[in-house]
Amino acid sequence: MVTKLEKIAGPKHRFLLNMGPQHPSTHGVLRIVLEMDGEYAMAIDPVLGYGHRMHEKMAEGRPYNGFYPNTGRMDYLGAILFSHGYVGLLERMSGAEVPERAEFIRVITAELNRISSHLVGIGAYVLDLGAFTPILYAFDDREMILDMLEAITGSRLTYCYFRVGGVTKDIDDTFIRRARAFIDRMRSRLPMYKDLVTDNLIFLKRTKGIGIIDRDMAARYGITGPVLRGSGISYDVRKSEPYSVYDRFDFDIPVGENGDSFDRYVVRMEEIAQSLRIIEQALDALPDGPVMVKPKKKLKLAAGGCNYTVEAARGSLSYYLVGDGSDTPYRLKIRVPSYSNLSPLPELCKGMLLSDLVTAMGSLDLVIPEIDR
Amino acid sequence: MDTMQLSFYDVLRMVIAFVLIVSLVFINAIIMGYMERKMAAKIQRRWGPMEVGFQGWLQLILDGVKIIAKQLIVPKDADRTLFRMAPLLAFTPVVLPFLVLPFSKSLFGRDINLGLIFIIAVSSINVLSIFVAGWASNNKYSMFGSIRSVSQNIAYEIPILLSLLSVVLVTHTYSMQGIVAAQGSIWFCLVQPVACIIYLISATAETNRAPFDLPEAESELTAGYHTEYSGFGFSLFVIAEYANMFTVCAVATVLFFGGWHGPFSGEYLGALWFLLKVFLLMLIMVWVRWTYPRVRFDQLMNLAWKYLIPFSLVNLLLTALIVKCI
After folding, report:
1. Which residue of A has its CA nearest to B300?
2. Of A311, A78, A106, A286, nearest in space to A98 by CA
């Protein structure tokens, strides 16, 4: 594959460095062609498509509810959040009723999934900086979430739990007890992460002032999620256009000041604390009742387009579906957060040291299969 | 120096010493490999090796057997001769310093009167092997790793030398036994605390250990200079790294922590104290590795040129003045 950079031969002392698709810090199958001047990356060209599985096309060939499993396979770290968007879209189009208890369970599981996703993101980010230990602590905490979700959804990673009209299985007392135990444990662990990572001198030196995304740049590239909030823009779909029952909970949107790699890390850490608050409130206010309204045999939607946006772990996720009156969509367009979060990389990292490039890229917390789809 | 009048006894002693030292280097790699994995596991709240033998203590021996059985793959367009030579070149210089290490009062290969200089001179050849490995691999990441390694080692050689010199000014001898003997009453880490700290920091950088493991920073350079090495070539680099760690910790023990001095250290029992101190220092290096993130390259260079070298120079000057006055 010939990239743009390979065609344009730069000055002679520069050379091309192919980073990925198998590289320890591109996490997945991102390939970046770098034009290096010594250790400085002068031009960055991300090459995508190594994990392309044509999910959008797959949606056109199968009934609406046949696409449930696919949603979890785009962002394997935030599977519940992704299926939340798709199920919400179908419900908005079909006008299906959802029991209140089911909505609460959705919020609880979605926030748990967000925490587990952030834990991996943070752990992998610190691993990119060369500290091996924090990722294992993060995985230790994440294990509790996976166990909890496994007990009610049946899977540990690519959950397929939400359905039009509710969720497949009710949560029981064991789950509630474990969730409360997890909240206590996670709250006691957050200061430890602060001591181990956030206050670490080397960590501060490596991340402060590296990869600054200012407000203007964030707006130009359509950046969303923790990366946007790290730049000081307080935008969160859960607040700005609340879906599900998010408007009933009291939580803050953490924002950063400088928009550097450190702020993005801190925003993620604080979002974990906010998610814990949401889960706690949802568990307290959990109503009784059914978790599923018996659906119609076959889901058939009217012709026309509809959009539904949720806040996934990495930013705002939009499903746009155009139906043609049959039982399959005419076209499904998915707007994933990682794609827009990746796009500033060439501008952001121009002239950076290779080590800083890894830092900046890690702080964007990209999930490549989500971009490739 | 009466080097020309080596008796048969001296030659025999050196041959035996050399055989023992090479075995020590391999055993050290096995012990440290095991300790590092176990300690990392404890720090990271996992089990580590558990399957082979009690607490998995045979794991590293099995790993050694496995790694010997592996094919040494030479990458396409690599410089075959240099590529094969580099691991051997890495291994040789790290064995030689063991010859002059004083394990106890009578347990040492040879006590030459320039022992310290010999160790420093021989162990800097190690840089060359890393550079050869990176150059011959025909891989840009290896090249990066080796270039980083060379500049890092050159930068950190200076504070190491300066901090060791300030001890030599106190002892008036380069002989390792002489330095140990001078510490009968007080360890030099109390006499020269600044030199001790500077030496320990620089030694971590000199052995390419985290947080200064930039030549093999795997999140940036996959594996740095030994990216292309497999099988025994790779394991020679690892053994050399552990042997190098042993050497710098042994030098630290000799110069700052009293060498073989300790309660009940007789003619040979001192070796126990010596090894205990060395392994404690090595475990501290392991502990640091699994706790801290990696520094950036320019920060590493700044640390050497802007802080360690000036501080060690001032320390050397002060030592010289004090020694002169007394």
Report:
1. A202
2. A106
